[in-house]
Design goal:
With 302 residues, the chain is α/β, with parallel strands linked by helices. The protein is built from twelve helices and ten strands.
């Protein structure tokens, strides 16, 4: 059996957990969500609209907002409608500043830019969360911070304590780094428990994203780390810290999306510097982007 065959077996085994479910209608994704992609049109989703969402018959012509109102979890650029979603790209971006020498003025500027461009969040080191959360109060921009960053080698108890303190300080999103050494050693139960400790410490209403540091893992390890994140109850899997040997790769984003389905988010981070980079990651399956060049990305739209 080749390594590729083994990888396919692992993925198929995971997807087989849902094999007893009734077949999903056209447009339904493996994780149980509805994706506005392929040939799907808003009017075709009438029987699959989520409870409490707008009936497809009332959606009218396709637009990103209409598709979401009809129950879609995310919008795929493979529709050939990139021009229509360019204005929505900013809402997918975590505006990020994690440099060691970032000062107060830089954090304040980051928050102003995030509010101005309606970014999804600002992502800063834990010491800046009290300031960022105050600056973002009254806006839809969320306050995100990192845990076990950037090596992931802190003990699970320390990661859990970091998480609880960050939430007390105002964080509404937590990006944690897995224990990469445990993953490389194949100790997946320990990896999963490490993640679960952060998820449980974050509590309800706080998004948790799990940084896999994909550049240090092979494809089988990426699959298994994604599975561990899903089982532990995390909200997102994320490619990279941006502090290792490489950042996000489209093929890794696509693999992570295939594994977690539509039930979780996928965040691409590290090396996302241009509008074209951002679109490529979204096309590959990302529904959140981490970037420090966020303003340049949205400002360079053709």
């Amino acid at each position: 059996m080749t390594s590729r065959d083994r990888l396919e077996d692992i993925i198929n085994e995971m997807l087989g957990e849902k094999s007893s479910s009734a077949p999903a209608p056209d447009g339904a994704t493996p994780g149980g969500g509805l994706s506005a992609s392929g040939s799907m049109q808003a009017a075709g989703a009438a029987s699959w609209a989520r409870p409490g969402t707008t009936p497809a018959s009332e959606c009218g012509s396709y637009s990103p907002d209409n598709a979401l109102a009809c129950g879609a979890d995310r919008i795929s650029c493979t529709l050939g409608l990139i021009d229509r979603v360019r204005g929505e790209l900013s809402r997918l971006i975590d505006h990020t500043l994690l440099k060691a020498d970032a000062d107060k003025n830089a954090v304040l500027r980051l928050c102003r830019e995030a509010r101005e461009h309606s970014f999804a969040s600002v992502c800063v080191n834990p010491c800046w969360i009290p300031l960022a959360s105050r600056e973002l109060q009254g806006s839809p921009v969320r306050a995100c911070t990192v845990v076990g960053f950037p090596l992931g080698a802190s003990s699970p108890k320390i990661k859990a304590a970091e998480t609880r303190q960050a939430v007390r300080d105002g964080a509404t999103e937590i990006d944690m780094v897995i224990n990469i050494g445990w993953a490389k050693s194949g100790d997946w139960s320990a990896v999963e428990e490490d993640i679960r400790g952060v998820v449980e410490s974050a509590g309800r209403g706080v998004l948790t994203k799990v940084i896999l540091e994909t550049c240090l893992l092979d494809e089988e390890q990426i699959v298994r780390a994604s599975l561990a994140s899903r089982r532990a109850g995390a909200d997102f899997v994320k490619t990279s810290t941006g502090f290792s040997s490489a950042g996000a790769k489209a093929e890794h984003v696509a693999l992570m999306r295939r594994v977690v389905g539509a039930g979780m988010g996928v965040k691409a981070s590290g090396g996302v510097r241009t509008f074209e980079d951002a679109v490529r990651m979204v096309e590959s399956g990302a529904d959140r982007l981490g970037a420090s060049a966020s303003v340049a990305i949205v400002g360079s739209r053709p």
